[in-house]
């Protein structure tokens, strides 16, 4: 019987080079998506799924992440004096979300290495990994479904999503077979960023994982792969190839709304989509967007 998942690792050590110069002094995870930094959406997702023990793997110059989730007494007192309860509540919310711990990655050796750094904190129990670049719309279930599947199957669970075959080279691609459950597949193999003609499917790994602790031993032995980094996909491939190690790998196929904030164009789209759906912004934004688009040639 699998132990319940209570902890989540959020790798946040990337340099954010695609957003330079904005990320020269500010972590990419702190870039605002409407009026919250991207990283807060990710932590809220974990908390909404019942995971309140959060370990962030950070790099240098990432102090803004810790500051964001800390108390800012002077600001809170200022808002309280002004009677601005709405903004005060929003500021306080980020400080009270979860028990958040921070650990330096050290040398940036890739996602697999970042996950491995969390070994002492996680211990001998299954855990979730949420990537800060991928935002999952709070109205669509994913992580809770993955946690249910992990408990049910006592296996590694990854999130998959159909993408345009022309874009599969940007992702890890999964070779799968159906199970007796709709929306859940058995993962037979994984390929990191394959060429279109080499991809086993157009099912891409998106940034949500529920891993068993056996992955740590495999990551210890995983050699640098694509890009000279220790790839988490390579370790998952080992687990997928042998069910005896830790029960194999299964994929939950997500068909909801996902926002990729790691790409500049998709980041802009995410802001527009989320703002359009907001009750406080949508009614004014949508007519303006319609008028703006009508003027485009």
Automatic annotation (TrEMBL):
Domain Nucleotidyl transferase: 7-275
One Pfam entry name: NTP_transferase
Molecular function terms, GO-annotated: UTP:glucose-1-phosphate uridylyltransferase activity
Enzyme class of the recorded protein, top EC level: transferase
Alphabetical list of InterPro entries matching this protein: GalU_uridylyltTrfase_bac/arc, NTP_transferase_dom, Nucleotide-diphossugar_trans
CDD domains with a match to the protein in the record: UGPase_prokaryotic (cd02541)
GO biological process: UDP-alpha-D-glucose metabolic process
EC number: 2.7.7.9
Reactions this protein catalyses: alpha-D-glucose 1-phosphate + UTP + H(+) = UDP-alpha-D-glucose + diphosphate
Family to which the UniProt record says this protein belongs: Belongs to the UDPGP type 2 family.
Name recorded for this polypeptide: UTP--glucose-1-phosphate uridylyltransferase
């Amino acid at each position: 019987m699998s132990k319940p998942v209570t902890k989540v690792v959020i790798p946040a050590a990337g340099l954010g080079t695609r957003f330079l110069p904005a990320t020269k002094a500010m972590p990419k995870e702190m870039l605002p998506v409407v009026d919250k930094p991207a990283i807060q959406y990710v932590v809220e997702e974990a908390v909404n799924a019942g995971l309140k023990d959060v370990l962030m793997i950070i790099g240098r110059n990432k102090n803004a992440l810790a500051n964001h989730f800390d108390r800012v007494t002077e600001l809170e007192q200022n808002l309280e004096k002004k009677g601005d309860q709405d903004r005060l509540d929003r500021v306080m919310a980020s400080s009270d979300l979860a028990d958040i711990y921070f650990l330096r990655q050290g040398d940036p050796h890739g996602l697999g290495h970042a996950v491995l750094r969390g070994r002492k904190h996680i211990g001998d129990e299954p855990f979730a990994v949420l990537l800060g670049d991928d935002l999952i719309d709070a109205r669509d279930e994913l992580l809770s479904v993955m946690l249910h599947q992990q408990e049910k199957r006592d296996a590694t669970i990854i999130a998959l999503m159909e993408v345009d075959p022309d874009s599969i080279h940007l992702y890890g691609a999964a070779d799968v077979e159906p199970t007796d459950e709709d929306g859940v597949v058995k993962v037979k193999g994984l390929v990191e960023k394959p060429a279109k003609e080499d991809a086993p499917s157009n099912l891409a790994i998106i940034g949500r994982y529920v891993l068993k602790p056996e992955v740590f031993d495999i990551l210890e032995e995983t050699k640098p792969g694509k890009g000279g980094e220790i790839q988490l996909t390579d370790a998952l491939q080992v687990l997928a190839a042998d069910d005896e190690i830790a029960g194999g790998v299964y994929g939950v196929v997500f068909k909801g709304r996902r926002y990729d904030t790691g790409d500049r164009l998709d980041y802009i789209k995410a802001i527009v989509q989320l703002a359009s759906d907001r009750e406080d912004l949508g009614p004014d934004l949508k007519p303006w967007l319609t008028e703006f688009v009508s003027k485009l040639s």
